[in-house]
Amino acid sequence: SGKPVVKEMGGLNLQLEFAMDNEDIPQDQYLQACQAECRISLPEATGEHAYWVKVTQANGNAAWSSPVYLNRE
User: Fold this and answer.
1) Which of 3, 25, 30, 69 shows the greatest Cβ crowding within 10 Å of its Cβ?
2) Are strands 15-18 and 54-56 parallel, antiparallel or unpaired?
3) What 3-state DSSP class applies to 35?
4) Predicted local distance difference test score (pLDDT) of residue 62
5) Dist. CA 28–CA 61, nearest whole Å
6) H helical segments located in the chain
């Protein structure tokens, strides 16, 4: 397994971490191999809103992230 690639997302302990254990992908290509983009509209309501990320593998296994909280003032 290779060393994880970590991207800070701002705030205390908020980060994305990419790592490959079963793929023969050079470490400097991790982000290209496992990146994704998603755009969502924030709710109009003010206050704190929680979002989760679900990752589903080709074999059907899935994992959920811890919540990411956004505060709309």
Assistant:
1) 30
2) unpaired
3) coil
4) 81
5) 26
6) 30-33
Q: What's the rounded Cα separation, in Å, for the pair 5 and 36?
A: 15
Per-residue pLDDT of 21-64, as tens digits, reads: 656 677 787 677 666 676 767 778 888 888 888 776 767 788 88
Q: Which residues contact 66 (CB under 8 A, 6 or more apart)?
A: 52
Q: What's the CA gap between 27 and 18, in Å, rounded?
A: 10
* Torsion sign (Cα): 32, 20, 69, 43: positive
Contacts of 7 (CB under 8 A, 6+ apart): 15, 16, 17, 18
Identify the three-state secondary structure at position 7.
strand
Q: What integer pLDDT is reported at residue 38 of this predicted model? A: 67
